[in-house]
Write a structure and sequence with these properties.
This protein is α+β, with helices and mostly antiparallel strands. The chain is built from 10 helices and 17 strands. The protein has helices at 8-15, 39-56, 62-78, 119-128, 170-176, 186-205, 216-225, 246-277, 285-293, 336-346; strands at 22-28, 87-92, 97-102, 109-113, 131-136, 140-146, 151-154, 161-162, 210-214, 232-237, 281-283, 297-303, 310-313, 316-319, 332-333, 350-354, 365-369. The strands form 4 sheets. Strands 5, 6, 7, 8, 9 and 10 form a 6-stranded mixed sheet that branches. A 4-stranded antiparallel sheet has the order 3-2-1-4, sandwiched between helices. It has a 4-stranded mixed sheet with strand order 11-17-12-16, with helices on both faces. Helix 2 (39-56) packs antiparallel against helix 3. The longest helix has 32 residues, at 246-277.
Amino acid sequence: MDADALTAGLLKELRAAKPYPALSLTMPTHRRAPDNAQDSVRLRNLVAEARNRLEADPAVTREARSAIQEQLDRAVAEVDPRRALDSLVLLVTADEHHVWQLPRTAPDRVVLSDTYLTRNLVAAKAQAQPFWALTVSAEHAALWSGTADVVHEEETGGFPLTAPREAPDPQREERIGDTPSTFSDEETRTFLRTVDEKLRAVLAADPRPLYLVGLAPALALLDEVGEGAGAAVGRVTKGVPADMTPSGLLKDLRPALDHRQQRFSAEIDGTLDEARGRRAFAGGLDEVWAAAREGRAGLVAVEEHFQQTVRVSDGHLEPVSGEAADLTDSSVREDIVDELVETALDSGSDVVFLADGSLAEHGGIAAALRY
């Protein structure tokens, strides 16, 4: 699955305690050739490592080992290299398996525990900024789920919807002298009221930024007959072809997505400036990490691809270069940024990801503090 499928409910379910052992396997992947040729080899090696770990662990019974290995084989079979992004996460127990392809890199890891390793999913969800897009016409409405990288049509909440159309009535046309306007007849109004009702239910269950795509009369009538369209953060005024493709829709949405990201970045800059003014600001990995652990961070802003391996020493973080890092040392944290993001979200902080370089003066990460 993709990051936009990570609802709050599903994430809570994945983070719940599991019967030991819950296996988590993460690895970086590549989107294009020739780099992606190494992904299958890397996956094969990590699967072999997982099998060896299961074999060597005295706490794992033969029955559990066999069941987990079977689920792991199923997970590997579901991996689609054509949809590869920047990392792959496999989560496996004796009873289930999950496959996630994420637009955020993750290190090579095999973990056996009583919970899944979910920090990569949490960070990817925060970074992805999923949105809803509604394509609408007088006859059809479809709901799309997307991120900056990918969009796909959703069959949820009653979508897609197609308007029931009555057969033409020649006698009626003779009486009124013409066919009624598509966007003034009551059938279309009723249809768009239904679209609005379904849309509001989806937004209530899974709040996300909403984009609307359709001809101006269709969007205007949707505004008139309901309330859901009022929440839209962007609109694309153009016709929606019956054979609309995900790539075509993402191309149409790109200007609106970029515009909102620019406004969003400016708003975050303003929030951080205000925090500096009232001396409730933390800058740099060490300060923000401490604030997140203490639950003082109200907003954490991170550059999109900021990663740092560190050693935890006396309650502080010491950066460690990749070559010098001993990953068998429990004080060394290879994915401290993702760990920080998960900690911040656990304490109720808002976490946002900004363009690389936008927080350079603060070492790639900053926070506005609650106190």
